[in-house]
Amino acid sequence: MKVSKEKVAQNREALVQAAARLFRERGIDGVGVAEISKQAGLTHGALYAQFPSKEALAAEALADGVARANGWMTARLEGREPTLTDHLDAYLSSQHRDDLGGGCAMAASASEVARQPRDVSVAFTNGFSQLVGIIERTLAKSGSAAERRQRSLAITAAMIGGVAAARASAKASPALSDDILVAMRRLLDEVGAEAKPRAKRARVTRR
Amino acid sequence: MKVSKEKVAQNREALVQAAARLFRERGIDGVGVAEISKQAGLTHGALYAQFPSKEALAAEALADGVARANGWMTARLEGREPTLTDHLDAYLSSQHRDDLGGGCAMAASASEVARQPRDVSVAFTNGFSQLVGIIERTLAKSGSAAERRQRSLAITAAMIGGVAAARASAKASPALSDDILVAMRRLLDEVGAEAKPRAKRARVTRR
DNA sequence: TGTACATCAGTGAACGCGCGTTCACTGATGTAC
DNA sequence: TGTACATCAGTGAACGCGCGTTCACTGATGTAC
After folding, report:
1. What percent of chain B lies above the pLDDT cut of 70?
2. What is the pTM of this model?
3. SS3 assignment, position A7
4. Which nucleotide is nearest to B4 (CA to C1')?
5. Do B168 and A124 lie within an 8 Å CB cutoff?
6. pLDDT tens digit string along A75-86?
7. Which helix (H) or strand (E) holds A127?
8. Å separating the CA of residue A51 from the C1' of nucleotide C19
9. A173-200 exposure pattern, b = at least 16 Cβ within 10 A, e = fewer
10. Taking CA B184 as the corner, what is the angle to CA B63 and CA A159, rounded to the nearest 5 degrees?
11. What is the spatial distance between Cα B101 and Cα A92, in angstroms, rounded to a whole number?
12. pLDDT class of A206 with cuts at 50, 70, 90
């Protein structure tokens, strides 16, 4: 039966949300359209009324998942200006590592995206650039803009790599997994502090 | 028919090699046992004479792929002692990024391994620890052993993240992808130089 | 060394299953008059 | 405002297909005598 415009929008949103979470948890190839539709309270036919293919849904789900994670990074500390350390503590936390379904879509899917079609890569790239901007805003305004961007690019990719490596080693060695998170937090903290003009780099004592 | 011991070992090796390459190129869920067997010059039944399941083959293929990549990192410069810069230039190169099938299995599969069973995670962890050791050997002997290990852990995860992020963005924005590699190479180079005792950190001019 | 035979890697047909996608149909919505 | 009807999101059966795995069988290898 036909359905109100409002309901249509709700259903589409439910499909995207369900897909985003399931793709993060089990990978794009690891979940079927039947399960996504079911979790959104619909049948698979409804999915094809909204999206031309599973791949199109994947692109939209990744875009949504990435925007949501980035929004959380910035909204979390409303009021005060977030520092790089704030972002590192949140992103490179064991909570984030252990929350595959609820966490950043880039960390959950980085190596998979390389094998997906262009539009999925576009969604990744947009989210990545956005996170680079968030990191860049926390760096002191020393050096040229190009240097700051370059540094932010590397820090962002390192954050993603830190979470991905911590997750990949978690089942085999929880201790190594924790160590990776701690080591990456400390390294990037130093790197960020370094960007500050002439400030004597403090010995980082964070656990 | 029965087959000589030598031939059995050859066939097993061919299966592992074919699986390792295909898994890197298309993901574990993206390739079937039929194609792996065919590429090894066998039928899928032969695969099950050697391995109890596709998953067991995946674990062995990852272990092999990781060991091979690490071997290449060290063997490449036989004779002289490799520096951190040598490793960074090789690992964070556009050639490595563009050679999904032939490159490092950890960069190709990092985010996928998180969803695989324990034995796959074990293979990742072994390879990761090995690469950490390779990196650690290039760092100056300043600071405590624990500090050097921590730094190597972070550098290794960052290298993997750099290649994974560069690959994920390559289809959408080749320029961004290149920038990520350059930025990560420069950042980690600085980080490595820093570890040297009291040496004034040189401005890094590598392209 | 020569012969008889047990072993077992490899073959290829077959298994049930879930995949992504299509399609005839339904019926409440939203529009035209 | 009330009525007639076109629209189209959603349903659920059906499609062909390739998946991972099993199994009866083959026949050269390697062993026991």
Report:
1. 93
2. 0.92
3. helix
4. D29
5. yes
6. 777 778 899 999
7. helix A118-136
8. 17
9. beebbebbbbbbbbbbbbbbbbbeeeee
10. 70
11. 29
12. very low
